[in-house]
Structures are given as structure tokens and as C-alpha cells.
Amino acid sequence: MTEPANSERILREQYKDASKLNARARLHAEFSTNKYGWMRWVFDQIDLPERCRILELGCGPGWLWKENLRRIPAGWDITLSDFSPGILAEAKAALADAVRAFSFEVVDAQAIPFDDEAFDAVIANHMLYHVPDLDTALVEIRRVLSPGGRLYATTNGTGHMKELRDLVRPLAPDLPFIQDPLPNLFGLENGADKLRQFFCDVARLRYEDALEVPKTEPLVAYAVSVRGAKEAFPDAKVIELRRLIDKRIASEGVLHVTKSAGLFVATRADGRGRRP
């Protein structure tokens, strides 16, 4: 039987450190058509008072804060968390020279170790689709938010990376990247319905972008970094994938890859975190 795509074992292997995340981030950083920048855009959407308490779940290597250091109000009390101690250590190192202080905690989003109403905002940047029990995580997020507090949750849409998935499919049809794309679990198309079960005033914002990639190797590096790729891509299949991408780029000049990403803003309603 195929192991669930977001099983704890697979997640811990995938995110024991940031190496696989970095391989995917490099592709977007170098070849995205929208030059404004994803992390800058996400920060733009965080509308909070000058003094507030913020928890980021699944902070990764701290990219959101590293890229926006000069824009962070002095009165923001920020706790960065991740379920991976290795990745959290990388975030701590990346922000070690920051003039402001951050707190760092290893946290499972399904059992957040903070008091009720401890935060004015929770940020979940491309991570809710990894949580094995999403409903439990959303209950926990609602619990630690103050009344009127906001969840900022980013994710992808079902068309994200479609052209690369189409190239990978004949070589590794059982790869979770093909069989069970993460946006099916929590994505731009279904995320609002899920969030409305726990929050009110759910808004969806899209970030318009695409990839135009004239090189083969960054695409191959992305493909072999996804969940399950270690087992799905022996050397012979990597060579074949490289040949397929080479052929497309030789024919078209670049490989155009669809990107579909955005952010939900959801509000905790009353003092019990329930909708009115």
C-alpha cells in the first residue's frame, strides 16, 4: 500500500533540513516573471497594529522575516516555529544578526504549546497542506488567536507547476507530486470552505506569477526534491527527465510553467473563537 503523501515519516525526511526547500526556492527566485517577490508580497498583506503578538507556524528557514527585516514594526513580538528542529536551527542562524529579537520554538501545529488567546496573528506560509490532521490544527490556531485575531495562510492552486508535473508523470506516475498534489489537501480552490468551518470573514488573494525557464538543471533539481522523489527517480529516470526537458526547451526556447499561489486571511470571530 502506498504511504499517505503527508505521513509523518515522509514529512520528517523531506524537511529534516532546508536543502529540498532551497532547491525549489532557487527555481522560483531565478525564473519567476513577477519580480516584485513572493515574500515581499506576503508581508504586504499582513495588516496588523504597531504592537501585536505574532506566531508563524512552519517558518522554514525564516525567509519571510529575512527578506523584510527593515519593514517589521518595532512593536511586533514575533515567535517563529517549525516542527523540524533542523529547519528551525537554520531560521535562527539566518536571523542571528537581526537588530531585533525573535523567539524560536519547535511546534506541532496540531498541539500548539501556547495559552489561549496568546497571539493577535498566526501565519502559516505554505504549510497547512502538510498537517496530517488539518481540522485539529485549525482548532488549535483558532484557540491561540485573540478575539478578532487573524490567520494568514498561503497555499497553491491545483494548476501550480502543471507543465513540470506533465513531464514527470510518465516517468513517476505514483509520485505524490503527481498523484496527490498538495493543493488538493488545502489549496486556493478549497481552502476558503475549510477555513469557514472555524473562522469568519475569509478572504482570498492571488499572486500573479509564472516561470519562464531556459535551463534544464534547475527544473530537474526541483523535480528530484519533491516528496517521494528519492525512491521514484533512479539515475535512469533522471536522465530521461533531463532529456524530455532538454527537448522542450530546444523546441520552445524556454519552458513556461504555470504558477498558482495566494493567501487566505481569516478572522477569529467571538471570545470563544466561534462564528456568530
Give a structural overview.
The chain has twelve helices and nine strands. By secondary structure, it is an alpha/beta fold. The chain has a domain at 8-160 and 180-208 and 260-267: 3-Layer(aba) Sandwich (Rossmann fold). The strands form two sheets. A seven-stranded mixed beta sheet has the order 3-2-1-4-5-9-6. A two-stranded antiparallel ribbon has the order 7-8. It is globular, with a radius of gyration of 19 Å.
Label this structure with key terms.
276 residues; alpha/beta; Rossmann fold; 12 helices; globular; disordered N terminus
Record the SSE blueprint.
Layout: H1 8-14, H2 19-31, H3 38-45, E1 52-57, H4 63-66, E2 76-82, H5 85-94, E3 103-106, E4 119-125, H6 134-144, E5 145-156, H7 162-168, H8 176-179, H9 191-195, E6 200-207, E7 210-213, H10 217-223, H11 229-232, H12 235-252, E8 255-258, E9 261-267
Helix pairs in contact: 2-10
- Overall spatial form: globular
- The assigned CATH architecture of the domain at 8-160 and 180-208 and 260-267 is 3-Layer(aba) Sandwich
Order of helices and strands: HHHEHEHEEHEHHHEEHHHEE
CATH-wise, what's the superfamily of the domain at 8-160 and 180-208 and 260-267? Vaccinia Virus protein VP39
Q: Approximately how much helix is present in the residues?
A: 25-40%
Main sheet makeup: 7 strands, mixed
Mean pLDDT: 91
The CATH topology annotation of the domain at 8-160 and 180-208 and 260-267 reads as Rossmann fold
Distance between the termini: 43 Å
Which class do the helix and strand fractions yield?
A: alpha/beta
Rg measurement, Å = 19 Å
Strand line-up of the largest beta sheet: 3-2-1-4-5-9-6
Q: Approximately what portion of the residues adopt beta-strand conformation?
A: 15-25%
- Count helical runs: 12
Low-confidence stretches: 1-5, 272-276
